[in-house]
Specification:
The chain has a four-stranded mixed β-sheet, with helices on one face. Strand 1 and strand 2 form a beta hairpin. The protein is 27% helix and 28% strand. The chain is globular. The chain has one helix and four strands. It is of the alpha+beta class.
């Protein structure tokens, strides 16, 4: 999918359930081993993916999440 600037976005997974679309991005590290700066980069990336999906699928909420190797989940606000 492309974002508002025309950049290609390669999200790991897009899931649709009854309430929303979910943009999921998998990370090979554990959440506790990710420094704040890196986590902020990941969140910015997923928020951009969410905006791109929302532009295509209007009328249904889009939520984002980072899923780490230790099975922890960090929801991303778009």
């Amino acid at each position: 999918i492309t974002d508002e600037t025309g950049a290609v976005c390669r999200m790991d997974r897009l899931v649709e359930d009854a309430e929303a679309f979910w943009v999921l991005d998998y990370k090979s590290s554990a959440a506790g081993n990710t420094d704040r700066e890196r986590l902020a980069e990941y969140q910015t990336q997923v928020a951009g993916y969410c905006r791109a999906v929302a532009a295509v699928f209007e009328g249904k909420p889009v939520r984002g999440a980072l899923i780490f190797a230790d099975a922890s989940l960090v929801e991303v606000l778009a």
